[in-house]
User: Fold these one by one.
Assistant:
Number 1:
Amino acid sequence: MGKIEFARQMQRRTKKFAIDIVRLTRKLPRNAEAFIIRKQVMRSATSTAANYRAACRSRTRREFIAKLGVVIEETDETQFWLEFISDLSLLDKVTVEPLQKEAAEILAILLTSRQTAKDNNTSNKK
């Protein structure tokens, strides 16, 4: 798979992930604590998708690496909120675990992509 097709696939995947998170938040209880968590997890998940899309529009490899750093932070934060939802038993594990798994997979891919971009950037300078 080429770079462009990989980027398109990841854009679709991160967008689907954000949509799935929004749908998950609709299942949260209607109370003060869940309101705060709902807002936070939606913000970080949608930011993951939006910032990945922005990273794909980077003008330089250096800019791409920097923007991927933001995407990684937002994905990690989404993982945190999913763990929080699970730890507080706000939703059952069957509902939360698939999204936790997807967040972990996306994060692993992003970390590898950033490292590859860094390695390629370093080798181009030699």
Number 2:
Amino acid sequence: MARRKRQPEHENHERWLVSYADFITLLFAFFVVMYSISSVNEGKYRVLSDTLTDAFMTSAQSLEPIQVGEEVRTPDPVAGEYAAPDPGQGVTETPEPPPQAPAVESASLSQIASRLQQAMREFIDKDLVKVTRTDRGVEVEMNSRMLFRSGSAHLATNVLKPLRRVARILRSLPNEIRVEGHTDNVPIATRVFPSNWELSAARAASVVQFLARLGVSPERLAAIGYGEFRPKADNSSESGRRANRRVSIIIMATPHERAAGEIGAAPGRNTQ
């Protein structure tokens, strides 16, 4: 019986399309990933950049700082340390009573500025603090890099010393006291601080709470956050942005001092 002749198989000339389609799909996925990586949030980049700078340029910060809205250890204004909370009380803290405030004494704005300047001399010499007479009273301006980590409202341990010195002077005064927080204009958007407004207000509140724990009458304290909207320098440079990140403690002039014209810069004298 004759064997049937085998027909040759038909060659598929379009098999390359399968490999080509796989390659295009992988290439598309690659570019999507690269695009997502290249989209950097400016606020988060600023926080990372400033944090790395602070880590190399400033001294160690507190591992147990003060944060607005969370339970903290009660500071001992005399020893300069924190008393550990009672473990049996859980999250409920029983703070130690604040130090007894001395009798209220009157002092002129010139005397207040002089006492603050003397108490803060070592920080003034390092360009971390400025004490000035303004049309509102006496202003103690503190650079935020000595107070907080970048993007945080935690008070650092190394700032407790100058704040105690300020509190000792403020405790006996009758003047109203405003604490104002300021930031630069670089946007920030985190879970805790949706904008610079919240960050500046939280920083001011942290300072207010600490002053109150040190015996400054809470009825005379106020915390204000201005965000980036009251800059003192040009935000287009790093030095300007650094100057704008600050917290100011304002000892307000009393009505009597305003009536007597004892506000504004002292003639012929610079208290910075």
